[in-house]
Write a structure and sequence with these properties.
This protein folds into 3 domains: 5-130, Rossmann fold; 187-288, 2-Layer Sandwich (Beta-Lactamase); 298-461, Alpha-Beta Plaits (2-Layer Sandwich). It has 16 helices and 15 strands. The protein has helices spanning 14-24, 39-51, 70-80, 95-105, 117-157, 162-186, 203-209, 213-216, 221-225, 231-242, 288-297, 308-325, 339-346, 348-365, 390-406, 438-454; strands at residues 5-10, 32-36, 55-62, 85-90, 107-112, 188-193, 198-201, 247-254, 260-272, 276-286, 328-336, 372-377, 380-387, 422-429, 459-461. Helix 2 (39-51) packs parallel to helix 3, helix 4 (95-105) runs antiparallel to helix 11 and helix 5 runs antiparallel to helix 6. Residues 247-299 form the PAC domain.
Length: 462
């Protein structure tokens, strides 16, 4: 089945290629393994393989290499073999490199060095199976199209030969049944009647959601499978469908066993005579890996909080939403008091641990749907939350200052306290004030942060 396939591995270090050879050789029956040290040679080899009629289902490439980086190499090979699944290996994480590989080479997976052997093999097996699945469906589509065209021509030419025509139609039905079985096994499909009750769920849909068919058929689609969605999101979906329109979007679902996964979902009305709604069909595409890579690009690696890049877009978005909804917003910016003295005396590794503990506290303290916490640089953090009134914002700011000190992280060289403390600048955004920009809010919070420092630190200033 795989005798025409070649997995291409590219790394400038011979020892890495030897390791890949040892761990991958013989793992994928019939698949040839090509190991290339020179990335320019890899591009040429890819052209030669395609010219020979070979297929390249998977490309594994190091990121840090002489000349071009791995994202550029993957982009070049993607142009030659656009259906190949691309996997990037590196011991040095680069958000720009990952982002470039996503945008230019349709990156399938990013794996850090040193890799986990089982994770590497499972990833490549999944990539190979994904490639084979797509190729199978594409081939089945082509075969089905060719078959239908042939049947139409035969019906025209042999209208008198009813017995032969019926035999050919029976053969076509068997092929369609096989094709539908492929769809059932590999495509996440669910059908719902007009009342929102599930009437069909594909085997692939059941596997991903974790439910048996018997647990789905006859139950409400929205309230069985959308239990973790907000009421507002459910109302948006139902309102679109009630208008006879197609709804689509990205949703984070929760499987029966509690695992979260992301899908791009399209729900379309099944129309009779272009007007009467008989029911609905939902088709999902699992995008969990894609969302994981996206999350990597907006997350601070040390603390797990959102990073400065995400901060700019979120603050602008939330300012607009709060203004339209007539809601109060509280924006707090703080940094650790005398953090340079801490690093100088305890070491940077200890300083990183302090930042991690603060990140853990922020993630625990701010868990509501529209609470956002960021590390915006060095020892500087930001918090953005909805509040009902100014007093709630001040209470929250005072509580955060106290909570950081209550972590009891020793700082014997601080003139403020024997524990780690913070200085915080608080900017309230009223629904009645004129529209403000991200830069205005940031600058005003920063000014108040420095006033808090000048006032003695370990406090907030509004």
């Amino acid at each position: 089945m795989y005798s025409n396939y070649v997995i291409l591995c590219i790394d400038d270090e011979e020892t890495i290629l030897d390791s890949l050879s040892m761990e991958l050789s013989g793992r994928f029956a019939g698949v040839e393994l090509e190991l290339v040290q020179d990335n320019a040679e890899a591009e040429e080899l890819a052209r030669d393989l395609i010219a020979e009629g070979r297929e390249i289902p998977v490309v594994v490439c190091d990121y840090i290499m002489p000349g071009r980086k791995g994202d550029a190499v993957l982009a070049a090979i993607h142009a030659i073999a656009p259906k190949a699944r691309t996997v990037m290996l590196t011991g040095q994480s680069s958000l720009d490199g990952v982002t470039n590989a996503i945008n230019r080479a349709d990156l399938y997976r990013y794996i850090a060095k040193p890799w986990d052997r089982d994770d590497l093999i499972l990833t490549l097996r999944g990539a190979l199976e994904s490639y084979v699945q797509d190729a199978t469906i594409e081939r089945q589509n082509a075969e089905l199209k060719e078959l239908n065209q042939g049947l139409e021509q035969k019906v025209i030419e042999r209208t008198a030969e009813l017995q032969a025509a019926n035999a050919e139609l029976a053969d076509a039905n068997r092929t369609i049944t096989q094709y539908l079985d492929i769809i059932d096994q590999h495509v996440l499909i669910c059908r719902i009647d007009k009342a929102g009750i599930i009437t069909y769920a594909s085997a692939a849909f059941c596997r991903r959601s974790g439910f048996e068919r018997a647990e789905l058929i006859g139950h409400s689609y929205l309230y069985t499978l959308y239990s973790n969605l907000s009421e507002a999101r459910i109302q948006d979906i139902t309102a679109t469908l009630e208008r006879g329109e197609t709804w689509q979007g990205e949703i984070r679902h929760q499987s029966k066993d509690g695992e979260y996964y992301w899908v791009h979902e399209i729900i379309s009305p099944d129309l009779v005579n272009e007007s009467f709604v008989l029911g609905f069909t939902s088709i999902r595409q699992d995008i969990t890996d894609k969302k994981a890579v996206e999350e990597l690009s907006i997350t601070d690696a040390l603390t797990g909080l959102y990073n400065r890049r995400h901060f700019n877009s979120v603050l602008e978005q939330e300012l607009d939403r709060a203004r339209l909804a007539k809601q109060w917003l509280a924006f707090a910016m703080f940094d650790v008091d005398h953090f340079k003295l801490y690093n100088d005396n305890y070491g940077h590794a200890a300083g990183d641990e302090v930042l991690k503990r603060i990140g853990q506290l922020l993630n625990t303290r701010y868990r509501r749907g529209r609470d956002y916490v960021f590390r915006i640089g060095g020892e500087e953090f930001a918090v953005l939350i909805l509040v009902r009134h100014p007093e709630e914002a001040e209470t929250n700011a005072a509580g955060l200052v106290a909570a950081i000190e209550a972590l009891a992280l020793p700082h014997g060289h601080s003139p403020v306290s024997s524990q780690i403390t913070i200085s915080l600048g608080l900017r309230l955004i009223s629904p009645d004030e004129p529209p403000v920009t991200v830069d205005q809010v940031f600058t005003e919070a920063d000014t108040r942060l420095y006033r808090a420092k000048e006032s003695g630190r370990n406090r907030y200033v509004l």
